[in-house]
Design a protein that fits this description.
heterodimer, A: 317 residues, 12 helices, B: mainly alpha, 0% strand
Chain lengths: 317, 287
């Protein structure tokens, strides 16, 4: 196992290098370069100032020199300096990371709980009205744009019913954990909806498959209660593929967080990303994209490891 | 063996598809919607950019079925016109993404070895970069048009198709008919085009259908952030752009364009689901 994980970690190196090349090319293709935002301000700026600015950022160097400089700094955790705040990008990201991880974690938990409940009940009562409702819900979850679902929730629960705060992380002056958690409910629900939809359907078909297996017939023949048959023998085997899909989808949560945080004014990386986009703050954009990509790669590895741990038939040589 | 005894492949396909009632209804819904949007200049009660300052943000009424926006433009008219752009972008980018994915997947699966390795590592890299954030950066570079949106979204949505098609091709290329074609002296390109890809069409078509829905959602998300096709041309996404600010008092500005997206994507996905069952009847037993 250790050998396998080490080998996979080593294989990640060329993959991450490939990712940095693509991201670097994308940022290089940006129109106007770093001084674009300065020039667009409409003020007259001395060309010499622009030259000095470019030299200070190192963007007057040939492309490959810039890339090598950037990548060797990035390897040491230095992602450059933000154009808009002139603060280190890594510092800005670390500052916002907890909020994003909190939102992603809460959404993941919520999605897992709802999907397990929905998926297993749908499988046990196949073709019941509950099962059909679950299918309908999952199609909705996949067809609904995240931002629109967020807007509708804000409208219904925030504005009309007044049950939940519309945005932010806490009421000014109120504070407290309860207040904070109330603010978390809608963003987490919005971000998790798509995964509730996907995972519950996946668990349903996986559980239906598992319940047709021979060991289930044996368990029933032994006279075990239906609860034991489904809960212990069925679910445990049905969960294996679902859990690895869940680990894979963790990465998708990051993309969704960009939109969700923007709608709910959640002060995480996603919202900072959108602000950086409007400000044309390319080092910051690049840093966040890199972080997101590395997260995807790591979660993929996690998915494979989880799969092996849950299913002893899988061998890693 | 007479023709009457065994129904043709296409007859089986159509009867299987007809059994999926939701897919049939959805096909009708998408057909009608697309027709209505295409015929927007004939159907729409107003001009899409006709500003009427005497009825700004009017609630839905018989005069304005879906109300009016902050410039007094008729929302129903704009939803119809917006659908043209949104559906067009959805279809074009799905075609582009599926085309690239099928070509990459077929080449990787058919040629194997170095070609496979290189193409699949490129796919891995493209897969690892979060698509939506990358799209947001790329879309912010230029003033978007329907074509540029379709290109950007299409170029970033080929990876799943490539992986699926590669898997299909790996098994298809071992078939006897491929061997037969090769022994008759057919070139590789001809074998791929005439024998391999047609037999991988099922998953390609299903993937393309689902990609249309996905692209419509992505387009609306980008437009919501102000990165899509610019006003005054309406799209379902950019109609929602300013909706958040006035949502509390003028909910119809948020509800109707969103419902249009939801209805279209839902129907398109049902069609994809039906196609999947019709093209692969054996897999249906687990549903």
């Amino acid at each position: 196992m250790t050998v396998y994980v080490t080998r996979r970690l080593l294989q990640m190196i060329p993959l991450v290098l490939g990712i940095t090349l693509v991201l670097f090319a994308v940022i290089q293709a940006a129109p106007g370069g770093p001084e674009g935002a300065l020039l667009e301000s409409g003020r007259f700026i001395d060309p010499e100032v622009i030259e000095a600015y470019r030299a200070r950022l190192g963007v007057d160097q040939p492309v490959h020199v810039q890339y090598v400089r950037w990548i060797s700094a990035a390897a040491r955790g230095d992602l450059g300096v933000s154009f808009s705040t002139t603060r280190p990008v890594s510092e800005m990201i670390l500052e916002r990371l907890p909020a994003t991880l909190e939102l992603m974690g809460a959404s993941f938990l919520l999605a897992a709980i709802l999907a397990f409940a929905l998926g297993s009940l749908s499988a046990v009562r196949q073709y019941s009205w509950f099962d059909h409702a679950g299918t309908g819900l999952s199609f909705l979850g996949i067809a609904m744009p995240v931002f629109w679902f967020g807007l509708i929730l804000q409208l219904v629960f925030g504005v009309w019913l007044g049950w939940l705060p519309v945005a932010g992380t806490g009421t000014v002056g109120a504070g407290g954990l309860g207040d904070h958690l109330l603010h978390l409910v809608m963003p987490a629900l919005v971000l998790s909806f798509r995964y509730v939809a996907g995972w519950s359907r996946y668990l349903r078909s996986s559980l239906l498959g598992a319940l047709r297996a021979d060991y289930i017939r044996t368990a029933r023949a032994k006279g075990l209660s239906e609860r034991m048959v489904v809960g212990v023998h069925g679910l445990r085997n049905a969960l294996i593929p679902v859990v690895s899909i869940m680990a894979l989808n963790l990465a998708g949560l990051f993309g969704g967080a960009v939109i969700t945080e923007t709608i709910f004014a959640w002060p995480g990386i996603g919202r900072m990303f959108i602000q950086a986009m409007y400000a044309r703050d390319y080092p910051l954009l690049m840093g966040i994209l890199l972080l997101g990509s590395v997260m995807v790669v790591l979660f993929n590895l996690l998915a494979d490891i989880v799969y092996g741990v849950l299913d002893p038939r899988i061998r890693y040589e | 063996m007479s023709d009457a005894a065994a129904p043709s492949a296409s007859a089986t396909f159509w009867s299987e598809l007809a059994r999926h009632r939701l897919a049939v209804v959805s096909l009708a819904v998408v057909g009608l919607l697309s027709l209505a949007c295409a015929a927007a200049p004939l159907l729409a009660p107003y001009e899409f950019d006709a500003i009427d300052l005497t009825s700004i943000r009017a609630a839905p009424s018989w005069e304005h079925l879906m109300g009016t926006d902050d410039l007094g433009r008729d929302l129903f008219t704009r939803v119809l016109y917006g659908g043209r752009v949104s559906i067009l972008i959805g279809v074009l980018s799905a075609l582009l993404g599926t085309g690239i994915g099928a070509a990459v997947g077929a080449a990787a699966g058919f040629y194997g070895r170095v070609v496979d390795n290189v193409l699949m590592r490129i796919t891995d890299v493209a897969y690892a970069i979060p698509t939506l954030p990358l799209l947001i950066v790329l879309a912010s570079y230029t003033e978007a048009t329907a074509t540029s949106m379709a290109l950007v979204i299409g170029f970033l949505s080929w990876m799943t198709t490539a992986r699926v098609v590669r898997g299909e091709v790996l098994s298809i290329k071992e078939m006897a008919y491929v061997e037969a074609a090769r022994s008759l002296g057919a070139s590789n390109l001809r074998i791929i085009g005439r024998h391999v890809l047609p037999n991988a069409m099922g998953p390609i078509v299903v993937g393309a259908t689902l990609a249309v829905g996905n692209a419509i959602i992505v387009e609306s998300s980008l437009s919501f952030l102000g990165l899509g096709v610019q006003p005054p041309t309406p799209t379902w996404g950019n109609m929602l752009m300013d909706a958040q600010a006035t949502m509390a008092t003028k909910p119809w500005l948020t509800v109707f364009p969103g419902m249009a997206i939801l209805l279209t994507v839902l129907a398109v996905n049902f069609i994809g689901d039906g196609l999947q069952d019709a093209l692969d009847p054996g897999a249906r037993s687990s549903r």
